[in-house]
Amino acid sequence: MDSKPAPNWWARNWKWLVPAGCLTGVAGLAGFIALIVGLVFGLIKSTTPYQQALAKAQKDPVVISRLGTPIRGGLLVSGSVNLSGGTGQANLAIPLQGSKGSGTLYVEARQSAGTWTYSTLTLQPDGVGEPISLLRPSL
Predict the structure, then answer these.
(1) InterPro entries recorded for this chain (predicted)?
(2) CB hemisphere CA count around 104 (13 angstroms)
(3) DSSP string for 64-130
(4) Residues with Cβ < 8 Å from 88, sequence gap 6 or more?
(5) Which of 56, 59, 123, 48 is nearest to 86 (CA)?
(6) Beta carbons within 10 angstroms of residue 50's beta carbon
(7) What's the predicted TM-score (pTM) here?
(8) DSSP state, 8?
(9) What CATH code is assigned to 48-133?
């Protein structure tokens, strides 16, 4: 009587181990990418130009009437902020959302001697609507 030896552990389990290992690798890579993206967006959101622009939009009566309250910054901020010593520049597109609508706040600013000066601070409402400049003089 010829009996075969029992298959070893690998022979019995490879059919689930290989896909599980691949999925673990893909999940790990996706998690790493999500971590990097979260850190980058978090760094941009912590900059002075982002903070000041968002605060100005949240207090502006024209923006409030158009978007409603509360006004919150969206997740996917685009653009760049470059800092070097006391100088820098920022070019951002900040998605905003309120109870009545949404839009994108465009920000262009330069830093000199630690002070930010804004050349563009404009909300473009989504859909129909004229751009709203937040650089207009206060009434």
Answers:
(1) Coa1 (IPR014807)
(2) 12
(3) HHHH-SS-EE-S--EEEEEEETTEEEEEEEEEEE-SS-EEEEEEEEEEETTEEEEEEEEEEESSS--
(4) 81, 82, 110, 111
(5) 48
(6) 22
(7) 0.78
(8) -
(9) 3.10.450
